[in-house]
Structure formats: structure tokens, C-alpha cells
Amino acid sequence: MKYNLAFKYRIYPNKNQELLINKTFGCVRSVYNTILYTANKFYEETGKNKIITPASLKSEN
Prior knowledge:
- This protein is mostly helical and 61 residues long.
- It has a domain at 15-54.
- Helix content is 64%, strand content 0%.
- The chain contains two helices and no strands.
- The radius of gyration is 18 Å and the shape is flat.
């Protein structure tokens, strides 16, 4: 029998940890938006999908 199992965790970061979490999510959001923009631009130009990874963006710059 298959069933789904989930765990919920709650964290209470101090100010320094909260700042680090916010910086990390800010960087992740920036990378995600860059990947999405690049993929959409490629699709508009060629009509084909291309898998874009953070590593491929890093090697281009």
C-alpha cells in the first residue's frame, strides 16, 4: 500500500540567521529569474526548449 508521508518543521532563527536566510533566498531568486528569462528568450528566438542550468550560466559569464 502506497501512502504519502509529510513532516512539518518550524524554525526560530535569530537575527543573524534570519539575515543569512534572506540573503540566500535573494540569491536563489535571482538565479531562478535569470534562468527563466534566458529560457524564455531562447524559446522566443528559436521556438525550441532548452534546458538551462546554473552551471551553464556560470560558464557563459
